[in-house]
Amino acid sequence: MAGQLIGKPFRVVVLSGPSGTGKTTIVERLIHDSPVRLVKCVSATTRPPRPGEAHGISYYFLTHEDFTSRRLAGEFLETAEVFAAGYWYGTLKSELERARNEGGWAFLEIDVQGALRVMEQYPSAITIFLEPPSIEVCEQRLRSRGTDSEETIQRRLKKVQDELQLADRYRHRVVNDDLEQAIGTINQILLNQSE
Ligand code: ADP
Ligand code: 5GP
Hints:
By secondary structure, the chain is α/β, with parallel strands linked by helices. The protein is 42% helix and 19% strand. The chain has 7 helices and 9 strands. The strands form 2 sheets. Strands 2-7-1-8-9 form a 5-stranded parallel β-sheet, sandwiched between helices. It has a 4-stranded mixed β-sheet with strand order 4-3-6-5, with helices on both faces. Strand 5 and strand 6 form a beta hairpin. The model has no long low-confidence stretch (mean pLDDT 93). The chain binds adenosine-5'-diphosphate and guanosine-5'-monophosphate. The site of guanosine-5'-monophosphate (5GP) has 15 residues, from strand 5, strand 6 and helix 4.
C-alpha cells in the first residue's frame, strides 16, 4: 500500500535508464508499494500503442498534429524525439498539477534528454538513473520482453552508450540486477527525501 505525504512539500521524481533496463517493471511496483505516495505522470507520445496499452493509462497517444499544437501552446514541461525514429514523447504540465492535486509526488519515467530539461526547471528533483548490470543483459531483457522488432531493438541498443554517459548527471544511480534489491534501494532513497 502506497504511503502518505501529508504536510510534506511537493517533489518531482525522475526515473531514467536505457530501454530494457526494467523501468516499466519497477515503476509499476513503486506506484503500488512505495512507502511514499507517488503519482505517475502519464506522458504523451506520437508512437502507436503496443498491444495492451491504453490511452490515458500507458500514454496519451496523440497525432503529430495534436502533439505539435500542444507543444506550441506551451502545454509541455519537456519534449524529446527519443529514438530518432520520428516519434515524440513529452511530459504535460497538467500531469504535474494532477499529481500535486492528488497529494502525491509527481513521478516521471522519461529519457535522459527530457530529464536534463526537468533538472533545469526543478533543481530539487529527485533524479534516479536505473542501470542494467551490463549492456548484454539489457539486450537479453529487450528480446525476452518480445514487444519490439529487430530494427527497434537495434535502434534502442544504439542509444544505450549515450545514455550511460549521462548517468552521473543524476543524483542517484541504481543497478537493476536483482529486482527486489533495486526496488528496495529506490524506496530507501524516497524515504530519505521524505523525512
Ligand atoms: P524498460 O521499461 O526499461 O524498457 P521493462 O520493465 O519493460 O524495461 O523490462 C524489460 C524486461 O526485463 C521485461 O521482460 C522485464 O520483465 C524484465 N526485467 C525487469 N527487471 C528485471 C530483473 N531485475 N531481472 C530480470 N528481468 C527483469
Ligand atoms: P517506450 O516507447 O518504450 O514506451 O518509451 C521509450 C522511451 O521514452 C523510454 O526511454 C522512456 O523513458 C521515454 N519517455 C517516455 N515518456 C517520456 C516523456 O514524457 N518525455 C521524455 N523525454 N521521454 C519519455
